[in-house]
Amino acid sequence: MPETAAPATVGNSEFDRATALTPHEPGVYGIDLPEGWTIFGALNGGYLLAVLARALGETLAHPHPFTISAHYLSASRPGPATVRAETIRTGRTLSTGQASLFQYEADGTETERIRVLASYGDLASLPDDVRTTAKPPAFPPLAHCVGPDDAPGSADHQPIADRVLLKLDPATVGWALGQPSGKGESRAWFGLADGRDADPLSLLLAVDALPPTVFDMGIKGWVPTIELTAHIRALPAPGPLRVSTTTRNLAGGFLEEDAEVWDSENRLVAQSRQLARVMQS
Amino acid sequence: MPETAAPATVGNSEFDRATALTPHEPGVYGIDLPEGWTIFGALNGGYLLAVLARALGETLAHPHPFTISAHYLSASRPGPATVRAETIRTGRTLSTGQASLFQYEADGTETERIRVLASYGDLASLPDDVRTTAKPPAFPPLAHCVGPDDAPGSADHQPIADRVLLKLDPATVGWALGQPSGKGESRAWFGLADGRDADPLSLLLAVDALPPTVFDMGIKGWVPTIELTAHIRALPAPGPLRVSTTTRNLAGGFLEEDAEVWDSENRLVAQSRQLARVMQS
């Protein structure tokens, strides 16, 4: 089989190459943020979270983000960036660390883009017991869902759309036809376009990959994330993920957006919440 | 009216005195963590979050925590502590900062207890528009709810119980009688015992004041918080608060616990989520 036909795997995929870090000194990494993971010129917030999480995974004594909280300071652009990561505490089960991503002004001064705190553990070491009342919402089959390029007005094609498989539940894309449901919901099948299976890092991409829930409330505009916290709850099984996002409370121009990610074995593998701001256009 | 009969007010109450900081130098504050806010010998996590939030409020250009994420590193004990707070970024609408609380080993070395990242704004400046589908769950009248000392086994009286008004929905305290509902829910009326009204700082106390939701799932033990993120969404109206906490997913010994806080005008004033760990006894 020619190499180009080999399916992408964890460790050998475009997502892995796009998040790869060059170690400069202990805890300091370089990366050239690629154009390919942008939306309207800015790097996707979930992609950036994965970059920071990868730096922490290389720095801390434990491999997987159990909980990671990111505060977004300014929009990241394609080009060179530096990630600094440090251990705050190393415990037997969990390690806690901090990381920041910086870019450069024309005069060479550093600007901090994102700062994160995270506690890492080893998901593979956890006992199998699950006691959950959480159930995935109903999703139509993937083949009945629609991609960004299926929607009217898809002249707005974004580079990231070539790199993720995002197939939206038609019930939550009425806004693209001027008929938002008003519920503040978005649901989609999610994967990486090259077929790479999910892992904890790609789950961080999944939680911030869907159209803003406020579109489903009939609001248009830019909805920048102020802060996003994700809990990775289990190693995801192979196969496409289902992501459900909801907003219950939009008040004073701010809203929460909750995401849940379900794997192919119906396991709740990630939960996230972000505080975002509506900049109406 | 004698001074002892005057109702406590924001700025003049036991909670305000217990969170008061002594400035040592810019961004560095001293505090003597009081015995009165402990539970089983450790300072309450919500109280500590309020201390750190107060330090950030004195350091940052904006007054109120819109979103604050705390990673708990080690248990805080009554006694001297130092809080260090710094500004990361000052914007027009929001400022972002970081703070840590430290205590001391016998040999004088510092141990970090908690680290937080937070974005602050001015809740009083937000427009009044609210579009919410969130509704408070049904709460019995306060007079029909039960306090920690009404429960059997109240020999476990904790100092913090004298400082907060906590009246639990009887439907969520079956665990105290050996009859947990299994739902993973806890609901309570909440206030400060001396009658001080709620403010953004006391909302941080409210989100971590109820018995662990896992008690309602029939699990006993210590449930330490790994990380807690709270969003303060509005200035609370005077009067007691209603706090509802839920856990949907307990897996591999870890769980999320979500809290919602409602004010007397039925407004959703705070949302929080924590990742906690069950240490079964």
UniProtKB/TrEMBL annotation, chains A, B:
Transmembrane segments: none
Domain called Acyl-CoA thioesterase-like C-terminal: residue spans: 150-278
Domain Acyl-CoA thioesterase-like N-terminal HotDog: 33-119
Protein name: Thioesterase family protein
Highest taxon listed in the record's lineage: Bacteria
Entries under InterPro entries matching the protein: ACOT8-like_C (IPR049450), Acyl-CoA_hotdog (IPR042171), HotDog_dom_sf (IPR029069), Sec_Metab_Biosynth-Assoc (IPR052389), TesB_ACOT8-like_N (IPR049449)
